[in-house]
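Q: What would this chain look like folded?
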Amino acid sequence: MRDFAQEIEDRKAAGLYRTRRHVSGPQQPQLIADGEPMLGFCSNDYLGLANHPSLIAAAEHGLSRNGLGGASSHLICGHHEAHHQLEQKLARFTGRSGALFFSTGYMANMGVISALAGKGDTVFSDALNHASIIDGCKLSRATIKTYPHADTDALEQLLAGTDGHKLVVTDGVFSMDGDIAPLRELAQLCHRHDALLVVDDAHGFGCLGPQGRGSVLAQGLTEAEVPVVIGTFGKAFGTSGAFVAGPALLMDYLVQKARTYIYTTAMPPALALASCASIDLVERDDARRAHLAHLVTKFRTAMTALNYQLMPSETPIQPVMVGDARAALKLSADLEKQGLLVTAIRPPTVPQGASRLRVTLSATHTDADLDRLIAGFAASAPQTTHPTRPAVATATIR
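A: My prediction, written as structure tokens:
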């Protein structure tokens, strides 16, 4: 029998053991974690909407009108008018013809990719794509060709040497590095080689593009150029669930074929109504995005002055490279002693030798909050290392 206990001990010895924190109260910068007050810089609540009173009011109203449970799958009797309203709003928001509401981002990626590609087809996947994309590729049973991160020349060679139905899938914003995919070049390649392009913009929606409409529209790309976009409500939108948006024909096809949509209970209607309210907030609140951009610039300037190694990211995801897993844990622990919660990210989430602290900023962080974080890093600066980034990466998580 496999020695599971020894595997756990081995992970502890290598500095790779993972634990869960108990968080009390709402998600916001000022957290209670394991009973202690902490200033958090590791949430994906980029716009600070997870505790917004308008979203809470929309959910409460939805609960009073429609109850709690979804009760059934969408294809039985679970497709509520609130879900339909959300999908119509999503189509308009993303500039696409249709949309579908999924239960989670993981389920959306697995369902969409495995429906749009199958045995005999080929899927081309960026080396730093999220684990849910990688698992969706595997589930499809298509041939998988992984291209080096953001390397469009390498991708073109792979596309040129492949016949049959081709699907290119990429994150819009990469969750562990914070950089943005070269979407315009990818769209041109897909047009030239007759491939379908799918972009998971989970970390771009809300933060990037006009009115927070994501990295695809930030690069001026249309539905014709990037047919399918996937997003989540659990990050900048501050609620829960996920979606895919694209041509009406493909949305109908996914209703027929996406197993993670067909065979799961619909999300509560109240959450759909809260997400509708969130889209309205995201569209009109440029001030939050402006403040967030200010915090990103301030953080990068200060950390560079402290001689920390940052990744080339203009997004709220600001990885601080450390290298060794144990050193990353120590830096995280040093910050925690100062009341600062910043998670250490270690293999297999990132490659060996590329452990880091993944700082994520929120529009609800104040300048004083950021000053406190920078001071914490300054006090811990001698513990950092400056590794060379590995050329090959493994799957990442959000």
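The domain at 22-47+286-383 is CATH 3.90.1150.10 (Aspartate Aminotransferase, domain 1).
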